[in-house]
Every structure is written in C-alpha cells, then in structure tokens.
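We were asked to recover a plausible sequence for a given structure. The inputs and outputs are reproduced exactly as logged, with field labels preserved.

PROBLEM: sequence recovery
POSITIONS: 177
GIVEN STRUCTURE:
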C-alpha cells in the first residue's frame, strides 16, 4: 500500500478560512460543538495581535488542508533569557487523525523554530506523546502553574535549568477560560 502524498508548507493568508474550519472540526466534540471550539478564535487573535511566529499546514495530493500547527510568541523572564515559542494548537482533520499527521506537523514546527533561531518551544500536552518528539518536563513558572504536562523542546543545545525563569504566554492565551 502506498503512503498518501502530501506536503507541509507555510500557511498562506488566503487559507485562513479553511484553517479556521479545520481547527473547529478537529477540536469539535459532543461536549464542545464546533461553534464553541476555543482554538480557532485563539489562532485568529494571535494573528491579529501579531503574536503568531509561524504556521504550517499539511496539504494532501488533492490540495486539501488536512493539518495545521501554530507557534506563537512567548516571553521568558529570569535566567536564562531565551527566544521562545508556544506550540499550539496542532489540528488534524478528523478523517485524517491517527495517520501521523500531527507528528509530522510538530517535527516541521521544530525544524522551522530551529531555523528561526528559537532557543526553546513549549507545549502543554500528553507527556508520552510529546516526549517521543523531543519535548521534556521543565520546571518553569507559567500560567499553567507547576504541571507535568507543560513540556519544553530545547532547540539550540541540551536541556537547561529553567527553575528560576518564568514564561509569559501571548495575551490571546491568557484570555481563554
């Protein structure tokens, strides 16, 4: 069986509406209908505020967007001073989930962040999933408080002690309930 053909590329502004719909479908549940999905307005607000560092999309052979990843600006204060991003959200069309698209998008985001000379990417997510992609627990003060689910991927070298640092997320994240 042949692997499906696809490509990962930067998001084109003409595709904002398609990505909005993708995000809504990816995060829709019985408890959270499409209209109540918080991740789509979060992405839009990050764009409006100028806090989006970059976005990548995975497009299938038919030209349809099947996945999206966003990396937004965060600020790290204390020691050490770092250039950092927040990986979120990662969205995959419901019919394409379970095919490794999320992992491909995350690897692409890590690669792009390295090229942009970011020192670290942060994410709030399942440790087992993100550890396999190069993220690790980091003891840093954040809006999430101490959490085993807040992870870091160090991009320009080995792990760092961030116990004396604090990460401040973009205001759009802070506006979420």
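RECOVERED SEQUENCE:
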């Amino acid at each position: 069986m042949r692997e499906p053909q696809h490509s990962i590329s930067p998001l084109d502004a003409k595709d904002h509406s398609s990505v909005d719909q993708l995000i809504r479908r990816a995060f829709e549940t019985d408890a959270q209908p499409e209209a109540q999905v918080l991740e789509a307005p979060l992405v839009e607000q990050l764009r409006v505020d100028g806090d989006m560092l970059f976005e990548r999309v995975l497009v299938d052979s038919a030209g349809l967007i099947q996945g999206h990843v966003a990396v937004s600006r965060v600020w790290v204060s204390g020691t050490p001073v770092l250039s950092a991003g927040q990986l979120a959200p990662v969205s995959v069309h419901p019919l394409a989930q379970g095919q490794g698209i999320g992992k491909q998008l995350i690897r692409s985001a890590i690669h792009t962040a390295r090229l942009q000379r970011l020192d670290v990417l942060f994410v709030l997510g399942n440790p087992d999933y993100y550890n396999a992609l190069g993220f690790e627990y980091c003891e840093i003060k954040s809006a999430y408080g101490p959490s085993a689910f807040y992870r870091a991927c160090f991009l320009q070298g080995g792990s760092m002690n961030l116990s004396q640092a604090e990460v401040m997320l973009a205001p759009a994240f802070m506006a979420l309930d």
